Each structure stands twice: as structure tokens, then as C-alpha cells.
Amino acid sequence: MKMMNDEIVEEVRAIRVAHAAKFNYDLRAIYDDLKKSESEHIAAGHPFVSPPAVLPAPNSTLQRTRFAHR
């Protein structure tokens, strides 16, 4: 299967790698930085949407097939 190069996906991946490298790929440091950034955005008045407490049930054959192994 040949993968298509997508400029946006490549840019997001490059940003992710650069961010991880900034913290020497330390997951705790990366997490702490993301939580700090989240707090700053909330304090600045940006909306924050919490994830749903219960995931919705799949309603199509595609969803049931794709997520059957979760």
C-alpha cells in the first residue's frame, strides 16, 4: 500500500518531533509542558471542552468494525 505524502501531516509530525526533542523525549516533561500550556490558554479565556464521561456507542457498521478491537 503506497502512502500519500500530506504536507499538513508532515508539518504536524515535524512539530511533534521538535517539541519532544525540546524535552529530550521525556514523556513526563512533555506532559507537564502540555498541561502548563493548557492552563495558560484556559486562563487567557480560551474555551476548554472536557471529553465525554461515557463514549457514545458506535452507530454504523464501519464504526463497529473499525473499533471492535478496543
Describe the structure.
- It is built from three helices and no strands.
- With 70 residues, the chain is an all-alpha fold.
- The protein has one domain.
- The radius of gyration is 17 Å and the shape is extended.
What would a concise description of this structure say?
Helix content is 56%, strand content 0%.
Write the layout of secondary structure elements.
Elements: H1 7-22, H2 27-43, H3 61-66
Largest sheet: none
Low-confidence stretches: none
- How large, in whole angstroms, is the Cα Rg? 17 Å
| Beta-strand share of residues | under 5%
- Count of helical stretches: 3
Give the N-terminus to C-terminus distance in angstroms: 24 Å
- Helix/strand-derived class? mainly alpha
Helicity level? 55-70%
The outline comes out as extended
Number of domains: 1
Q: Secondary-structure element sequence?
A: HHH
Average pLDDT rating: 85
**Count of DSSP strands:** 0
Labels describing this entry:
mainly alpha, extended, 70 residues
